Amino acid sequence: MRSIAITLVLLLGSAASLSITSKSSFTPSFSPTSPSTSPTTMKLFDWKRREADESSLNDVENTLFTLDNLKPAPGSVKRVQRKGRGIAAGQGASCGFGMRGQKSRSGRPTRPGFEGGQQPLYRRLPKFQGKPLGPGHKRKIYNLIKTSELNTLTPGSVVNYSTLLESSTITKGKSILPHKVVLGREKLSVKELTVQAHAFTKTAREEIEGLGGKCEILKVTTGEVVEV
């Protein structure tokens, strides 16, 4: 048994020495190749470059614009963000509305101007006083003067709000508002009156001018005669 073990050890040692010598004498038969030096190129369109050559299109006098050469300025058009088209699109899963909450639900969660229960902006701001029906409205409010109130005046006189107030023909009323002459219930009987007001109705003007009078329109701010 001892002799058999010795022979096995000798055989294993000779096999190991043969394998080492074979590995050291092995030389590869291929030569390593150098990496490719050709860079990856990508086609860039003119609308993606801000420094594109647009000199030919800027020559308007010598350029015939057709449907095939019309294009926007470089960098002026941005691609629309596509939501809900996968995670790679940037807004894929929740489309920018978050994971949960009232504003992430379908439909409009709150009414326009709602601020979560606090006093909204349209109620915090003061109301615009001085103009009817809100700012910017075209409706005008006048202090009306009826033609029947002019029957107590002398013919050929100049009539305006101040003279009517001094003669106690009309009351003070809304003196801040501009004055407008309208047709009264009774017909005008005084002739050749020069009536000054900020506005006249069509029927009142016809009645005054029919008796030989004149209608003069006053400027609202200064009270000067701007139109006869």
From TrEMBL:
Residue span(s) of domain Large ribosomal subunit protein uL15/eL18: 143-216
Q: Listed GO molecular functions?
A: structural constituent of ribosome
What Gene Ontology cellular component terms go with this record? mitochondrial large ribosomal subunit
Record's keyword annotation contains Signal: yes
Q: Which Pfam families match?
A: Ribosomal_L27A
What keywords appear on the UniProt entry?
Ribonucleoprotein, Ribosomal protein, Signal
Q: Has the keyword Ribonucleoprotein been applied to this entry?
A: yes
InterPro entries in the record: Ribosomal_uL15 (IPR030878), Ribosomal_uL15/eL18 (IPR021131), Ribosomal_uL15/eL18_sf (IPR036227), Ribosomal_uL15_bac-type (IPR005749)
Endpoints of the signal sequence: 1-17
Specify the domain of life of the species encoding this protein: Eukaryota
Q: Residues annotated as region Disordered?
A: 91-120
- A Gene Ontology biological process term: translation
Family classification: Belongs to the universal ribosomal protein uL15 family.
What is the protein name given in its UniProt record?
Large ribosomal subunit protein uL15/eL18 domain-containing protein
Query: What are the top taxonomic ranks of the organism?
Result: Eukaryota, Sar, Stramenopiles, Ochrophyta, Bolidophyceae
